């Protein structure tokens, strides 16, 4: 089992891969049954749909700035809660959003992201 610093490092790697558009790195970081709840619409998307949107350029990130990160570890699960400021584009329209996020990681030989949810907040 990795320590809390390991989960924080993987969380940072997730955000870095988003900004880089590194679909291969994201594929390695996400569980097969990964789900994400969209911060803007509340839509639930699975791993394949999320990666396809990034790979096809439908969704891009120019910046993701996490802050106020808190990590709790429960056996083989780590829950990461933080705040982000992010900028990017979706279907060609630029966006900027501030959110609180919750990421759930599971340790299956290394931390992998199983679930992500963002809640919009005032900047």
From TrEMBL:
Database matches in SUPFAM superfamilies: NTF2-like (SSF54427)
Residues of the signal peptide: none
Domain of life (superkingdom): Bacteria
Start and end residues of each DUF4440 domain: 9-113
Coiled-coil ranges per UniProt: none
Gene3D superfamilies: 3.10.450.50
Protein name per its UniProtKB record: DUF4440 domain-containing protein
């Amino acid at each position: 089992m990795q320590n809390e610093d390991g989960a924080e490092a993987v969380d940072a790697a997730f955000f870095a891969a988003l900004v880089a558009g590194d679909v291969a790195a994201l594929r390695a970081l996400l569980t097969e049954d990964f789900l994400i709840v969209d911060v803007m619409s509340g839509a639930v998307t699975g791993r394949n749909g999320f990666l396809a949107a990034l790979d096809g350029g439908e969704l891009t990130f120019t910046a993701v700035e996490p802050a106020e990160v808190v990590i709790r570890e429960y056996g083989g699960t780590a829950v990461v809660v933080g705040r982000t400021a992010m900028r990017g584009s979706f279907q060609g329209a630029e966006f900027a959003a501030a959110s609180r996020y919750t990421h759930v990681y599971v340790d299956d030989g290394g931390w992998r992201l199983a679930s992500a949810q963002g809640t919009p907040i005032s900047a």
